Structure formats: C-alpha cells, structure tokens
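TA notes, week 10

Several of you asked for a full example with nothing omitted. So below is the full record: structure tokens for the whole chain, then the designed sequence directly under it. When grading your own attempts, check the secondary structure regions first.
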C-alpha cells in the first residue's frame, strides 16, 4: 500500500542496514558497524525496483483479497492464553518453562531476563549488566544447563550471561579483547552440556563461526567451518559429550564440531538451500529442526546419520524452530504466518492452530511436565507470552 518509488525504497534499504537485528519500531537501535549492503540485500537496486512495481507508486491499483479456509476439527479444540508483559518494548524472543512451571524469557531489545509465574501472574525482570557501553542492547538465545541455571546469548553486547536461579545473580562471560570486533554478536550459546569438560560454546554470525571458551582459564578458540565457502552457523546445541552441533542458516547443512579433534563434519539436508534455523537435540541423539527457506521441519538422527523431512502446509510459512513432545508430536511456528503446527510424526498429519494476533513467532517451547504437553512462544512484536493448550 506504499507509494514509494525505486529510489525511495533504496534509501530505506540502506537505512535498514544501519539498524541492529534487535530493533523494533518502538525502539530502533543503530549498529556500531553498518551491514555490508551487498551482503545484506544483494542487488539492492533491483530489489527496490521490484518493490516499486507492486505498490501504489504509479497510481491506484486493485489487489484481490485471498483468504485462507477456516480451521476446523482438531485445530479448534484448543485454549490459547496471552499474558501481556509490563512494557511494550519487551521482545520475548525465547521463552521456556522450568521444572517448577515458572516461565522465563529473553528480551531481544533490552538488558533483562524475565520471570513470569502463571499462578500469581507476577512478572519480575532481572537486569543483565552491560558488556559494551553504547552498543545495541538485547539478548536472543535462552538455554538451560545441567544444573537448571539459565544462559543468555547477548547479541551485540557480545559474550554470554549465566543466571544462577538460587542466588539470582549473573556471571558475565566476555570475548577476549583480541577477538572482539565492532560487529561481534553472540546470538546463540551452547551451554547444554558445558559441565562435561568445563567448556562453553558461543556462536558469532559476524564471523560465521563458533567460539569455545575454557571456563577455568578463559582460553578461547574460534572455529570457522565456512571460512572458504557459503554458509553460517545459527542455532547451536551440545550433545552429551559436549560436541557442538549447529544449523547452517546460510546454506543447507547440519554440522558437528568434534570436541576432541576440532574436526567439522557437514550433513546436507535433503532439501537444497533449506536454511535450517533453530532446533534442539534430544536424549536419543535426534536433532529436531526447522528449515526456514525449505518450508519444512525435519529430524536428523546423529547415530544413523539419516534425515526425515515433512513439508508444512501452505506457502510463505517460514518455520523458525521445532520442538518434539513426549506424545510423539513435532511442533513449529511460522515466523511469517502467525500459525502454530502440530505434526504427528507417525501419521504425517498436521493440526493447525491460528493465533489471535500478529505474533512474529521465533523460539518455540514444549512443556512436557503437563498432560497433554503445553506449547509456549513469545509474541516478539506484541510484548506478550502465549500459551497454547490442546484439548485432545
């Protein structure tokens, strides 16, 4: 519905390259180092011209409204509850529930860890110390370690933060001074099994690599599996021996860095250019993940080294993450679709749950302590936590 011409769109694209990933319309944040426009939007002039060809820049046009069919059957047997957060600038990017039923969330645009009690409806914010004054604030990844303590990937603040739930204190982890760059960002943290060898994994999209930090000595290594080729690690998670597995959001691979040898092995997904984005590894060594550009969700068995994929219904869904529940269902959410999907992996049958608002779904979480399992996500652009309870 805009009336911008190609030149005006190009100016918008160039301005967008100066903002951090964490930016929200209510809270724009400028990067210390702008993106390379040729990497951010290749052929930006052609993209701008295309946008101008499908809007109102040349006068009024008629666009036919195409509606999707109403959900029926099992997709209507659900209770969806939204819990508004106290500030409209909070972006609950990653949401998880602990063994006590307490909901925790990261804030993609602010320096805090959120705690929400669904019984008392009380929300508490724990301030995360700044690592770099003047850089954009906000955290992305939220993970639990074997002790139940919580870890945050601190994005442009760089490094990670460990939150001790008993003392309610943070331990801050920084990159060495000779490794940190103006565009350094630790979106993801691989803390799932760091206690095995006392080493923490942290991802860096700017380096297209993964750091491993010795938590005793502070010695830090950088692994660059895509130094000479296309690709880049996004989601990372460690297995029981603290090997790190990663999803290649820049390409089509699931990768492994061996903790002992440092050797990288890549396993390409059956769907080309699938851009696997977020996921996790279960106790059986199966990786459940979303293929953001492949319009699929998948499973990779690390023992047999075999894949299985399921195509999501509809177009332009953009699944961001996937989580497997105790009943044999695989869950995902559409970053562009505002719909949650539950897949029975045995039958291949999807159940679709439309959400009540524009949600911008990111990380998804299944609480297996409830019967049936409860599904959680954050309304990243609506400052709310969302609970979905199937009634079947």
């Amino acid at each position: 519905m805009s009336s911008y011409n190609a030149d005006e769109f190009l100016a918008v694209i160039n301005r967008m390259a100066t903002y951090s990933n964490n930016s929200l319309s209510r809270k724009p944040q400028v990067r210390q180092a702008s993106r390379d426009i040729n990497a951010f939007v290749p052929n930006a002039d052609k993209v701008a011209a295309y946008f101008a060809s499908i809007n109102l820049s040349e006068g009024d046009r008629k666009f036919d409204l195409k509606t999707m069919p109403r959900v029926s059957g099992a997709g209507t047997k659900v209770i969806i509850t939204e819990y508004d957060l106290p500030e409209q600038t909070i972006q609950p990017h990653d949401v998880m529930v602990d063994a006590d039923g307490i909901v925790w969330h990261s804030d993609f645009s602010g320096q805090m860890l959120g705690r929400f009690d669904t019984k008392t409806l009380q929300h508490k914010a724990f301030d995360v110390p700044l690592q770099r004054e003047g850089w954009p604030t906000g955290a992305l990844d939220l993970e639990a370690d074997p002790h139940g303590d919580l870890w945050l990937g601190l994005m442009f603040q760089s490094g990670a933060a460990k939150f001790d739930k008993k003392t309610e204190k943070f331990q801050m982890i920084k990159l060495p001074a000779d490794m940190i760059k103006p565009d350094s960002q630790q979106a993801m943290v691989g803390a799932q099994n760091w206690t095995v060898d006392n080493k923490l994994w942290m991802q860096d999209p700017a380096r297209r690599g993964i750091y491993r930090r010795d938590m005793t000595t502070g010695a830090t290594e950088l692994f660059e599996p895509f130094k000479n080729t296309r690709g880049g690690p996004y989601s990372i998670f460690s297995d029981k021996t603290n090997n790190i597995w990663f999803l290649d959001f820049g390409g089509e691979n699931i990768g492994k860095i061996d903790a002992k040898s440092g050797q990288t092995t890549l396993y390409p997904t059956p769907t080309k250019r699938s851009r696997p984005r977020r996921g996790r590894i279960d106790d059986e060594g199966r990786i459940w993940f979303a293929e953001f550009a492949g319009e699929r969700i998948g499973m990779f068995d690390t023992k047999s080294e075999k894949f299985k994929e399921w195509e999501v219904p509809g177009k332009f869904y953009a699944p961001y993450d996937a989580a497997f529940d105790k009943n044999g269902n695989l869950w995902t959410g559409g970053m562009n679709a505002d719909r949650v999907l539950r897949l029975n992996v045995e039958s291949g049958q999807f159940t679709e749950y439309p959400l009540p608002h524009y949600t911008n779904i990111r990380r998804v979480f299944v609480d297996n302590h409830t019967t049936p399992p409860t599904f959680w996500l954050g309304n990243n652009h609506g400052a709310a936590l969302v609970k979905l309870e199937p009634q079947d």
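The longest strand covers residues 78-84. Use that as a sanity check on your answer.
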